[in-house]
């Protein structure tokens, strides 16, 4: 279009143009301009006329804004502690790190009904969020009313994924309850996310450690033995295969667990999995710091060793692991979080979790993409597109495509940053990545066409983020492999009837 004419016809102008960047779309890199109108992507590539507002992206990467599908915001944890971020601080922090959508948890604890939990989280988020958000439901109380009425209603109303725990005394479901939830998810088309750790293994080791006076943070890593994760992951997969439903294992930490997932996928199981920055960039040694400082690095499952880090990288690279999320679980290094009993706090009493909502993408951009472990399309898939598909946000979110929401981050790959807690916008008060130098930063961040971060300044109003009613998960289908037990048994008449595949009950 001729520039002069375009500027004379006001309504033809784009609300925003991002000019001269390297735009990453689904499978392609396009050099040129990107035009935004009414909050959506309206033109990709070529040379566009000036918009009502222009952002110079010369020499920059223009990528989809990230989707963080695992973060804890204004939520009471499995151990009963309130995390340090509310929906304002968490979404501001996410935006500064290039994330434009979050899917945190609305957490049911025992005794709470699903409708009351969802109403409570919806109200708090609507008042504060500066970027778009949806919710997964944490399900701790799968009683008859929840399973027969409240959960199906929530799923039909856009809460199309739920998280269940196999550990934490206050949250864990028994296997028989997990089967009920999985069968319901199958019937309603929801995705079940599982925190897989064997509760009894952890309790058994922890009790023996405490009895012998081994209370320091590093013993958190000993109590949460890698086998506790691997055993529970295998069991969760088996339960899901029994009722023939997809499953997503969250925050995968260990090399054996990656292998169990890979093998299950090879057998045709619809198993998906996620990992997080802490499993790429931290190890158990970080929990072994003077005094109680190691508490700042305690999360569940804990970070392991260099071999496990490599296994997680391999899983992300070969697609065994589909998403890379923060599992942002911010707790302050004081009596509200990490040190409820001050200096006398044992590893069993400190809040589990590490902050990471702002650094999730910059860490992977620097250490994954710029160091050549993954290409730019893998970076986009792991941080945005795969989340959008699995959690029912595609095609509106997660990709640069015509008609999609204009959620965009403009990355300067040259910029070097030495990480400090002071530069971050969350309320944890510390970062596990203090002092590391990384390369690349999202300097301009756009949410639904609004420039929300520019010049290291926030330009978004409290409460301007929108709630996302999510659709059905778009999951890869893997067929059972011929000659395997599952292929031979899973279509048996009796089982089919039991899991509601439409045949008569035997
Ligand atoms: O340690 C962690 N990951 N804390 C957050 C809660 C959870 O289980 O995801
Ligand atoms: Zn978890
Ligand atoms: Zn979590």
Structure in words:
This protein is 31% helix and 20% strand. By secondary structure, it is α/β, with parallel strands linked by helices. The strands form two sheets. Strands 1, 2, 3, 4, 5, 15, 16, 17 and 18 form a nine-stranded mixed β-sheet that branches. Strand 16 and strand 17 form a beta hairpin. The longest helix has 17 residues. The termini are far apart. The protein binds N-(aminocarbonyl)-beta-alanine and zinc ion (2 copies). N-(aminocarbonyl)-beta-alanine binds next to loops.
Bound molecules: N-(aminocarbonyl)-beta-alanine, zinc ion
Structural class of the helices, strands and pairings?
A: alpha/beta
Summarize the main sheet: 9 strands, mixed
The coarse overall form would be globular
Taken as a percent bin, the fraction of beta residues is: 15-25%
Q: Total helix count?
A: 15
Query: What would you say the CATH architecture of the domain at 66-390 is?
Result: Alpha-Beta Barrel
The CATH homologous superfamily of the domain at 66-390 is named Metal-dependent hydrolases
